Amino acid sequence: MSALKNVKILDLTRVLSGPFCTAMLADMGAEVIKVEHPMGGDGAREPSAAVNGESLYFMSLNRGKKGITLNLKDKKGLEILKSLIKKSDVIVENFRPGVMGKLGLSYPDVKKINPGIIYASISGFGQDSPMKHLPAFDLVAQAMGGIMSINGQKGAPPTRVGVSLGDTSTALYTAFAIVTALYNREKTGYGQSIDVSMVDSIFSLLEMSLFSYLGDEKEVQGRMGSRHPTSYPYDVFEAKDGYFTIATFDNTGFSRLCEVMDRAELMEDERFLTDTIRGKNDAALKEIIHSWSNELTVEQVLDILEQARVPASPIYNIQQIAESDHIKAREMLVPVDHPVAGPTRIPAMPVKFSHTRATIQGPSPLLGEHTKEVLKNELGFDDQFIKKLADNKII
Amino acid sequence: MSALKNVKILDLTRVLSGPFCTAMLADMGAEVIKVEHPMGGDGAREPSAAVNGESLYFMSLNRGKKGITLNLKDKKGLEILKSLIKKSDVIVENFRPGVMGKLGLSYPDVKKINPGIIYASISGFGQDSPMKHLPAFDLVAQAMGGIMSINGQKGAPPTRVGVSLGDTSTALYTAFAIVTALYNREKTGYGQSIDVSMVDSIFSLLEMSLFSYLGDEKEVQGRMGSRHPTSYPYDVFEAKDGYFTIATFDNTGFSRLCEVMDRAELMEDERFLTDTIRGKNDAALKEIIHSWSNELTVEQVLDILEQARVPASPIYNIQQIAESDHIKAREMLVPVDHPVAGPTRIPAMPVKFSHTRATIQGPSPLLGEHTKEVLKNELGFDDQFIKKLADNKII
Questions:
Q1: Phi, psi at residue A147, to the nearest 5°?
Q2: CB of B215 within 8 Å of any CB in chain A?
Q3: Are A379 and A335 found together in one domain?
Q4: Is residue A290 part of a domain?
Q5: What string of DSSP letters covers A94-140?
Q6: Per residue in B12-49, pLDDT tens?
């Protein structure tokens, strides 16, 4: 059973935010038709990490989609797109604001062709921001969204989050919004437009640091490494062969920690009486913990802490989590068989539905792989006409 | 118009992941009934950042919800909950795996009471992971999900992302999943269970670093500060009074940069001929850029780069983004009038719908504010019976 069976999505997006969003919808069974320029297509096809020369980035973000090519700068190409719009439930685009309008594909334009359409736009700043002309790269969205000012070690420069969160958080909001609009359309018959920006998405995730500023104290927090804003020890610590975390908020956890370190007297130490007081004397406490953990391996430390029921964990690198029993048990890496790359593992969507299971429907499309099929089946074009379009570089 | 009008959600969640998810659903018009323990309620009520003593964290994450108290360890309390389940479309919980089962509230149990229910569970590792017994704090999910190994400066310790991304990314997936299940139920009549884990959610966001490991090179990337894995200059740089970003991937942007720095000869320098080659000589290029930018203020640098159309940006702290024209224009901080805190600004959901506008429906509930109303209206209890429940500390 597929939740989004029979939902047709016309996908004009490239690289990360849009494709990440439509991949989620494809996994839920929607038919996603990805439209690419005949010359080269989506920039994500450029292989930076590859299997047999095929970009894993593209493969992962475009699994289970159909791929067609269409030159939207050509009048005929645009006409074909409009015919496909008539047959679609959803259109998703992540051009710079204004580009769709110049193509005659603004929401009011598209609504005339298909009144019930759901029209989702992803951009750096939104369709109506005074800053909408600024470049919409992930680094910029993270820099201006505020998150870099609170990410990184104390004293270090503001640090980009190590993943493209400006893109992916926007993708998640947009996927939520599209399904919400589909539900509403089911109830009311109305389509609508959806406008999601990367800066807004980053801003929406600031939580504690934003609350600290909006609260009575008006505190502008900066970077504080891995530690909790107030509680301690909730931080990263060092053993003799690597790092680990301790994540305790309360005196129960702390007293257990003191016992395993054979330092029961710390519980009476006025620097460490409560969570909040410990938070203010974090450097002193960190040094004490290190004087214990520096003598042990990470494995030894974690064994001791688990026994004593002190919340703690290893810190996995990419290989360790990818090959972990957890990821295996959760089937979070899924094999796909790609015509060029061959059998390849790509990450699954992390939602386990009991009934409408999220399923990777197939490999990503080769450039233009489904052009013929879609033009024939959806629009009834014949071979001769399709050949002419190809000869004229419209597809 | 509200997209989720008439959708009833029973919310058994606390602190961050669950409440963030149900706040999104409340903004779309769902009726969310938050169930709290009569003694103290959700831990997020503890004010760490506050307005007039009221926790902004709680206010923001629970806006527009109804709040009732119910002691689920009491037989009668549990019975009342089951009566409410009968009248709900969705139930959301973020207890440790197994807790709901012990209460007789596992999905199979609840399905017997309400066959069409959508039952969403959020946890650290998932309902069936071999690691499900481990502590499910955000720090642990980030540490084991792999993201900390790639977040932070080169040479620095693994660094927690400066926001609770383990919680919030899971919230976003769960909100998407719930609405997807609602859509499917509308089409088919079937409910289902949904199981989302924090570690899986973090894992799903690794993109480039995960692809690098899954690709032919099997590269295990580490921390690389703010820079792009391959391209340069896409990084954070220093001016004499602060930091800024340059975000250029190609020779066009680089040649413009060389010109404004009056260093046209760099375009011929064999260390900087292409994006990828520049990426390998990042330290040398960073030094050259700094020798130029160190003489200027951030404002001067950004003026020059904007004129020359080199993608670049300021790095906003929390106050700067919160008070920016962008956030004002996008209405991303919304006033709510809270009975205790008074008029307070909280962050909005970053999706602009043209038809079913996301709207903060009201302030967060005081502890048990709607207990009477809900028990009367939903279950037909009378004042006397409600008083008895209160006297017995069941509500």
A1: -70, -30
A2: yes
A3: yes
A4: yes
A5: -SPTTHHHHTT-SHHHHHHH-TT-EEEEEESS-TT-TTTTS---HHH
A6: 999 999 999 999 999 999 999 999 999 999 999 987 89
Give the closest of B153, B196, B199 to A156, CB-based.
Answer: B153
Residues B359 and B374 in one domain: yes
Domain presence at residue B363: yes
CA distance A144 to chain B (A): 5
Tell me the residue range of the domain where A259 lies: 234-319
Interface contact B224, partner A, CB < 8 A: yes
Residue B102 has a pLDDT of: 97
Are B21 and B115 in a shared domain?
A: yes
Is the pLDDT assigned to residue A135 strictly greater than 90? Answer: no
Is beta strand B54-55 parallel, antiparallel or unpaired with respect to B50-51?
antiparallel
- With respect to residue A212, please indicate whether it lies within any of the assigned structural domains: no
Beta strands in chain A (DSSP E): 8-11, 31-36, 50-51, 54-55, 66-69, 90-93, 118-123, 192-197, 234-239, 242-247, 312-314, 333-338, 342-347, 351-353
From A377's Cα to the closest Cα of chain B, the distance in A is 25
**Percent of chain A's residues with pLDDT above 70:** 100
CB contact under 8 A, A352 and B196: yes
pLDDT in tens, B70-102: 999 999 999 999 999 999 999 999 999 999 999
Q: Chain B, 95-154: which have a CB under 8 Å from a chain A CB?
A: 107, 125-131, 134-135, 137, 139-140, 143-153
Domain assignment present for residue A294? The answer is yes
Work out the minimum CA distance from A343 to partner chain B, whole angstroms: 11
> What tokens were used for B137?
């704090």
Check A349 against B204: CB less than 8 A apart: yes
What is the number of domains present in chain B? 2
Last residue of a domain, one of A279, A301, A319: A319
Quote the pLDDT of residue B324: 98
pLDDT of residue A115: 97
**A47, pLDDT greater than 90:** no
B60 and B175 both lie in a single domain:
yes
A158 and A273, same domain (yes or no): no
> CA B269, CA B253: separation in Å to the nearest integer?
16
Q: Residue A82, Cβ neighbours under 10 Å: how many?
A: 16
Give the distance from residue B159's alpha carbon to the nearest chain A alpha carbon, in angstroms: 5
**Does residue A315 share a domain with residue A173?**
no
- Nearest of B71, B64, B54, B62 to residue B18 by alpha carbon: B62
**Which among B237, B280, B356 is the top mutation candidate for probing chain A, defined by the most A β-carbons within 10 Å of its own β-carbon?**
B356
Within this chain, do residues A259 and A130 fall inside the same structural domain, yes or no? no
Establish if B162 touches chain A: CB-CB under 8 angstroms. Answer: yes
Which of B294, B317, B340 is at the close of a domain? B317
Are A163 and A51 part of one and the same domain? yes
CA angle A371, A375, A380 (to 5 degrees): 160
Residue B242 DSSP one-character state: E
Q: Do B243 and A157 touch (CB under 8 A)?
A: yes
Which residues of chain A from 165 to 194 reach within 8 Å of chain B, CB to CB? 165, 168-170, 172-177, 179-184, 186-188, 190-194
Each residue's pLDDT tens digit, B274-325? 998 999 999 999 999 999 999 999 999 999 999 999 999 999 999 999 999 9
Domain with residue B303: its CATH number is 3.30.1540.10
Which stretches of A273-382 are DSSP H helices? Answer: 275-280, 282-293, 298-307, 318-322, 325-329, 371-379
Q: Which CATH number does the domain housing residue B339 bear?
A: 3.40.50.10540
Q: H or E stretch including B333?
A: strand B333-338
Measure the CA–CA gap between B335 and B362, rounded to whole angstroms. 10
